[in-house]
Design brief:
The protein has about 550 residues and is α/β, with parallel strands linked by helices. It has 16 helices and 21 strands. β14 and β15 (about 250-255) form a beta hairpin. The longest helix is centred in the C-terminal third of the chain and has 33 residues, at about 505-539. This is DGQHR domain-containing protein. It comes from Myxococcus virescens.
Length: about 550
């Protein structure tokens, strides 16, 4: 069976010269230039696929035009795909062909449809950068170009030898497991976004990622940091594995050290961890690494996409695990540890009115309208809503304290409040958020902030924080609430809003919170005025 002929099809670009030029020179966009360079380096024959002209030899003279596949009807795109495939079939009538398409989905779909409609023996379609965004494509292609240039350079004078374990996952496909001081990784691996200005490293990440790097760095500088997740690296063929004995799976990776600009490694995953290690005020910090060796930019792109599209842990699972942790955590998680512990206690303690009602990974949401459909599930209130209200209270509300944290006292206070809520609105309690906004995100947040106001008022008056007094405070606004029926009478310009019209959006949460807290403050002032009037009359 003959080896398939590798033919590259490079999608045209919107950016063009203002005058006629060879197809390979007409399109000036950065992505087109990068696609073309990779195609010319990896395939025997290269064509441009033009939205207007179809298949175009890359040396053919083409006038600038303004036609895109996106502007065509589906039938026109399908006809375009058939036209391109038929043109290729006339050029390569008897060959096995491997079509490498360097273009977006708008180009690939009609080409694939044409091949499926009229299958050609020995023809396959390959998308080397399938699923990659424009930024990811540019990144991978830039690294591929750099790797090609490096392989043509003189052998390095220095190498790094690291003990490694070779693992064969499938025939001919190996992973290499090793550890290395994270501060040394920039000597042999890089990312394409790195730039230098006046000799200084700059432009590495966006601001929000820089803040994440700072959080990791702070953790690395703590008493006993542990980073078990491995950095993933792609090496080009300049890196080799030397067995300690014939057929052995343990040995050494030999990594050439050619300077940052010609480094043989590409960081697939772990950029932020490596940046944090680089900047951390520690002499060294060893990291676990997993590497594979390939000169294929397509394989690098595939792994980059798979690693970086991995779904993060559900927030609910993180919240449920936080109370079990004891060591230092990044700041973003550290601030949630105490609220998460309070949520756990409120959901588990026998005396808590919220026992079993908070939705967590181990306590799933109750669904269905009848007890038979509930299958023993009782949870109705999203943990994120309760967690958020507790975070507010801990930072600047009823639970805020400069003294050492008394978790038991906090749980008693919050339990007393929600017991009062249950007693004040029994008809709205224990219902699905679609049937009652009391356990809805907006309701939980608003009631949490109302608790802060009520606690502040009771403390000002020197009164105890008991369920009985919380019920008295809630009675000031009880008749104005429409949790499960009726409507809310909001101030203008909002006006009257049916109870089901309240949504868990920032605007509605703000509206409901301000309405309840304003009503409560007004009723407290009226009550205070009546007290003063009675005292004056008695005098």
């Amino acid at each position: 069976m003959s080896t398939a002929l590798r033919i590259a099809l490079v999608g045209c670009g919107k950016a063009k010269r203002a005058h006629a030029a060879p197809a390979r020179d007409l399109y000036t966009g950065t992505l087109f230039r990068a696609h073309l360079a990779e195609a010319e380096a990896s395939c025997q024959h290269v064509f441009v696929v033009s939205a207007l002209h179809g298949l175009v030899a890359h040396a053919a003279q083409v006038e600038p035009y303004d036609v895109t596949l996106a502007s065509m009807a589906r039938s026109e795109r399908d006809a375009w795909g058939r036209r391109v495939v038929e043109a290729l079939a006339r050029i390569y009538p008897a060959d096995s062909v491997e079509l490498h398409v360097y273009a977006g989905a708008a180009y690939v779909a009609p080409l694939r449809a044409a091949l499926e409609e009229s299958p050609r023996e020995g023809w396959t379609l390959v998308e080397p950068l399938k699923g990659a965004t424009q930024g990811a494509r540019l990144r991978v292609l830039s690294e591929a170009r750099r790797a090609r240039e490096a392989t043509r350079a003189a052998p390095p004078a220095k190498v790094l030898r690291v003990a490694a374990l070779r693992v064969e996952q499938s025939p001919g496909r190996h992973l290499y497991l090793f550890s290395v001081d994270g501060k040394r990784v920039p000597e042999f691996a890089t990312v394409s976004r790195v730039r230098r200005a006046d000799g200084q490293l700059t432009g590495y990440q966006r601001p929000e990622v820089l803040s994440h790097i700072a959080a990791i760095r702070e953790y690395l500088e703590s008493a006993s940091p542990l980073v078990p997740n491995a950095v993933v690296l792609a090496f080009d063929s300049r890196v080799r594995f030397e067995e300690l004995a014939p057929g052995a799976e343990h040995g050494h990776l030999v990594i050439p050290l050619e300077g940052e600009e010609r480094a043989p490694g590409f960081i697939v995953d772990g950029q932020q961890r490596l940046a944090a290690v680089r900047d951390a005020l520690v002499a060294a910090f060893r990291l676990a690494c997993v590497a594979f060796i390939t000169d294929s930019s397509g394989e690098q792109a595939e792994q980059f996409i798979l690693v970086n599209r991995t779904r993060p842990l559900p927030a609910g699972l993180i919240h449920e695990l936080l109370p079990t942790t004891h060591g230092a955590l990044p700041a973003a998680l550290e601030t949630k540890r105490l609220p998460a512990a309070l949520v756990e206690r409120l959901n588990q303690d026998a005396a808590s009115p919220l026992r079993g009602l908070v939705v967590t990974v181990t306590n799933p949401l109750r669904t269905g309208r009848t007890p038979a459909a509930w299958r023993g599930r009782t949870a109705l209130l999203k943990d994120t809503s309760l967690l958020k209200s507790l975070e507010y209270s801990l930072s600047d509300g009823a639970l805020y304290s400069r003294e050492p944290q008394d978790v038991d006292a906090m749980v008693r206070l919050v339990s007393a409040w929600w017991s009062a809520v249950r007693a004040t609105w029994p008809e709205a309690w224990g219902k699905h958020p679609s049937e009652s906004r009391l356990f809805h995100g907006a309701g939980v947040t608003a009631l949490g902030l109302l608790m802060d106001g009520a606690v502040d008022e009771l403390r000002r008056c020197g009164e105890e924080l008991t369920e009985e007094l919380f019920r008295r405070e809630l009675a000031l606004v009880a008749a104005d609430c429409a949790w499960a029926k009726g409507a809310w009478d909001f101030p203008a310009p909002t006006g009257r809003r049916e109870w089901k019209g309240i949504q868990n959006t920032p605007n509605d949460v703000r509206l409901l919170t301000q309405h309840l807290t304003t009503l409560y403050r007004e009723r407290c002032r009226s009550r205070e005025d009546r007290r003063h009037t009675r005292k004056a009359g008695a005098a």
